[in-house]
Every structure is written in C-alpha cells, then in structure tokens.
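Fill in residues.
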C-alpha cells in the first residue's frame, strides 16, 4: 500500500519547485494524469472493502483536492512572474520624445510634386490626363509623328531599341508624343489633354539622364490657332512659377510633328546664381511647341482640312530644377534620403490653385 502522507509530501514539493509552465505540467501529469500516482490510488478504491473505502477514499480525495489547489496556486504565481517580467522588458520610458510618424518624416519627391502642380494648372484650363506605355512601337514613336526614314532620332545613338522579337520594332519611347497619337486614334475632337510620363534617351550629364520626365499638351478642334497656344503657355508658366506675369519670345524651329514649330523663351533675371522669372532682361529657352502637322492629323485618322490644333512639350525635371533651385539633374535619381529631406515636400502639401502650388 502506498504511503499517502509521503505521496502528499512529494507531490506538493514537486509542484512548489516547478519553475515554469512546462515543469508544472510535468508535476500535474505525475500526480493527476491518467498514469499519475494519485489517479492510481483512486483506481484501487474498487478493490477495497466498504470500511477501507470509507476511510482511505476520504484521504485519497483529500490528497487530490490539495494537489489540485496547489497546482492552481502555482499556475497563478508563474503567470504573475511572467507578466512582471514582460512589463519590465517592455517598459516604455514616457520621458522620451515620441517617435516621429510618417507624416513628419516622409517626403514627396519633387518630380511627383511638380507633376501634381502641372496637373492642377492644366485641369483648371480644361485639360484631362492621357497616358501610354513606356515600351512603344516604332510606328507610334516615329512614323505616325511624321519622322521620315533616316531621321537622326531613329539612330541607335539616340534611342534605346529593344531586341527584335516580333514583326513590330519596339523601343523605349523617346518622348510622350506617342500618347498624343494614341489619343487622336481613340477619341474624336475636340481633344484637350496633357500627357505626362517617363521618357528615355541615350544621354547622361549634369542636365541629362537616360530616363527623365516630360509633359506634353495637345489641343485638337476646328478653330484652334496660335493665339490660343500663346495664351495657354503664358497662363501655364505664370501660374507654375507663381509670378504676376511672364513675357514669352517665340523663335522659329523644326519638329517633324508640328508646322510651324517654335522654341519658346521666357523672360528672366539672373543674379547671384538665382533665376527669377517675369522680370529682367535675359531670356531662357523653356519648351518647344507648334501647330500639329497635317501629316500627323492624317496619320491619326483626322482630316487636316477640317481639324487643326497645337502641341507643346516641356521637361518636368527641368521645371523642378528651375523652380526649386536644383543644380544637378542626376541627384533626382540617386535615392539619397538627405537630398530628399532637403528638397522633398511634406505629404500633406497638396498643390492647389487656391492654396498655392508650393505652399
């Protein structure tokens, strides 16, 4: 016969010495598990005489009760110790300043900011945004835009051509003008769109990178003329540079997709490494423009005897450099967080014509 007093002492000792949940579970199984010592004693009650069952059964049940209570108390003790350890480990020093959140540390890239500014300006003049693929066909990038065979822009030193893989020659678009062609092929006049996006050319220096950003504008209807183009450009540059007025100078130029074609200079003042627009006696070339060439209209499914329009294009990166005083275009793409902290915009600085583009 097992000594109940000795078993009680050993069981309670094993429970009290348990240092974690695993050890406590081992003690529980040793006492109250299916093969535990106390469970084995309870199984012997059926073989006892009524008198023995009365006396021994009471002692065994009392032992089981004590073991159960001891297990519960030890479990509570271990949980309290575990909680105290977590509180100590995860303690927060409330005297320290709070960590800055994303709205404080995050910055909007100047290219993204300027693109939002341009969209706000042209949306106010009734332009919608049109987009197209970065990988274009030779037909959309050159042929439909009146680039003749043998034109220098079609040469490998200027354009990133892709390896031949089908009937159509593919390339990384050299301008966003293919979007104009796609728009004219899918929409009926009147058309008034801007086409922002990435473009690619074989060039790399302080003011050129192999990938950069452009925005082009297109207006097609039955009555548009050069006077409308001049007004749109004046309003755009005046609003973008946030000055009361600008003076523009139009110089004859040549682009295959416009006729007549013009380079546009804007009045400026250079002083102490700073450029101010809307004042001074200097001029700076800012963009190219012209009336859409009749061949382009014809190539894109519109009768040049019925419709006419104008187009213009300008580099978004260059606009950002001029407005915000950045000297090297390559820094735009170096992912230097220090540069972005200096030139970037806070996430909630949303451009608006009412609140200010760069407020």
């Amino acid at each position: 016969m097992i000594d109940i007093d000795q078993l009680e002492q050993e069981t309670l000792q094993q429970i009290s010495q348990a240092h974690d949940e695993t050890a406590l579970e081992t003690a529980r199984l040793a006492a109250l598990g299916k093969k535990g010592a106390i469970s084995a004693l309870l199984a012997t009650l059926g073989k006892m005489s009524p008198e023995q069952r009365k006396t021994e059964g009471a002692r065994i049940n009392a032992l089981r009760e004590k073991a159960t209570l001891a297990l519960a108390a030890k479990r509570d003790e271990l949980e309290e110790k575990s909680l105290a350890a977590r509180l100590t480990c995860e303690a927060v020093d409330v005297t320290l300043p709070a960590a800055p959140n994303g709205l404080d540390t995050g910055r909007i890239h100047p290219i993204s900011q300027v693109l939002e500014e341009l969209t706000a300006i042209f949306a106010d003049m009734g332009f919608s945004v049109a987009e197209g693929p970065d990988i274009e066909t030779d037909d959309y990038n050159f042929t439909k835009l009146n680039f003749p065979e043998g034109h220098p822009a079609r040469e490998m030193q200027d354009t990133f051509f892709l390896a031949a893989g089908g009937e159509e020659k593919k390339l990384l678009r050299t301008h966003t003008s293919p979007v104009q062609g796609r728009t004219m092929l899918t929409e009926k006049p009147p058309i008034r769109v801007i086409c922002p996006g990435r473009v690619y050319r074989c060039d790399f220096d302080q003011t050129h990178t192999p990938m950069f950003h452009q925005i082009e504008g297109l207006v097609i209807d039955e009555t548009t003329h050069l006077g409308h183009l001049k007004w749109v450009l004046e309003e755009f540059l005046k609003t973008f540079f946030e000055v009361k007025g600008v003076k523009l100078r139009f110089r004859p130029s040549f682009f295959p997709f416009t006729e007549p074609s013009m380079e546009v200079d804007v009045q400026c003042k250079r002083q102490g490494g700073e450029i101010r627009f809307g004042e001074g006696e200097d001029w700076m070339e800012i963009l190219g423009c012209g009336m859409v060439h009749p061949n382009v209209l014809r190539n894109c499914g519109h009768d040049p005897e019925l419709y006419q329009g104008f187009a213009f294009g300008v580099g978004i990166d260059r606009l950002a450099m001029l407005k915000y005083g950045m000297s090297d275009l390559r820094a735009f793409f170096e992912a230097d967080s220090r540069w972005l902290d200096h030139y970037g915009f806070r996430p909630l600085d949303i451009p608006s014509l009412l609140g200010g583009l760069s407020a």
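The chain has twelve helices and ten strands.
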